[in-house]
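Appendix B, record 7
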Amino acid sequence: MASELQKKWEERIQCAKKTREEWAAEFKVQMGRDYFEGRQNPGYPEDEWITVNKIYSHLQAQLPLLYSMDPYFYVKLKKSFSVDPQNIALMEAKGKTRQAMLNYLKGELKLKEKARLGIQDAHFAYGVLKVRRAADSKKHPNAGEPILDDDGNELKDEQTGQVMTYPETLPVNERYEIHRIHPDDFLFDEDAGPLEDSWGFLAQHTRMTKAEALADERYKTKAVKSIDPKQKADGKKEKKTGIIGSIVEKIKGKADEEGYVDIWEIYDLKKREFLAMGEDADDLLIEPRNCPPGIEKHPFCILRFTLRDASPYPIPPVSPALDPQKEYSLSRSRLLTHRKRFNRKYEVVTNKLEDESELSKIESGDDGALIRVNALGAVNAIQDAPLDQQGLQELMLLNNDLIEIFGTPNQARGIASSDSATEASILDKRMEVREGDRMS
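Structure tokens (predicted):
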């Protein structure tokens, strides 16, 4: 029987997932990703479809502008409350040490690679990076023994008066970590608004095998064991008894450990607590507790370009361009189909030919081939169906629509198209304003 807290958080997670799914369907998040990767053909034969991927070219122009190189960190004294030169020199030395550490970490932790991917995520949904200090643990050699002072006396807690003992484990391999979180693995609460002060909780989804969850010391073993893991192919089998039954149970137990469990790491922003919940578990994997030191509310950095009125989920920049992109590729494919369909054809009056074998020259002859005829008008070219100029104008209009939506004119993509220096200067200023807003 699931605990009340488990039921409460399972319900809240399910409601939050439904809200995100509705947003993703409304703004065609997955379609945007598919279009970026070139999957735009709605079902045409491959030899009659051409993809002109404007979304790809837009992102190739945007990403270098928004994150072309890593920032360089400076740590300096802003003001000094002390006139003691020794204190000032000491603080400046500490600042230089921290500055060197920050600039070392940005390369060691691959900040650029993960930040650029987060910025790319924000064009289709929203970008999320997780920044934290982590550590592994090992068993303490003196676990459970009383802590002694230099004189061999047992130390006692000042508040409770109890003897202080060594902990069960010791932190080792302490380090800073930066993780890129996929937007599909991140949730805002159902009632959240666009600004952080309206968020109730944030949740991150992780999937691991049941064996990995059992080995994780943070999770309650009993709660993990209560989860029925998800298999690639689940099948209900009749329960066996006796020797055969014991063999089946052993195999099933191994399969359970190899199956996957879904875990949600939740940060309750209202209570400033942290907890972990496994889907379909009987109890929470980690009971609510205070956030780790150094984390006031949550460890996530969230990038959203265009906020909405009453939702934390933004308007993805790529979303408004999907329909014009689809129509653009359709129009280009129509031109391709027209060219293939209307190759040059002829009508022939055969009784005006010297010999019907001359027809083969029309079918497979080279350019300039001569055909012997007895009278004029024996061979006449059939006029091709005309290509409506409206199709070419439509392509120009669609291209202008995409430029207006994306805000990346030809100049932003390295193509000179301005008619005058004044026009180029105006465009350049407008581009700088728009790019500066996105960078901020």
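Remarks on this record: Residues 234-242, 247-251 have pLDDT under 50 and may be disordered. Strands lie at 127-139, 169-181, 186-188, 201-209, 260-268, 273-278, 286-290, 300-303, 345-348, 379-382.
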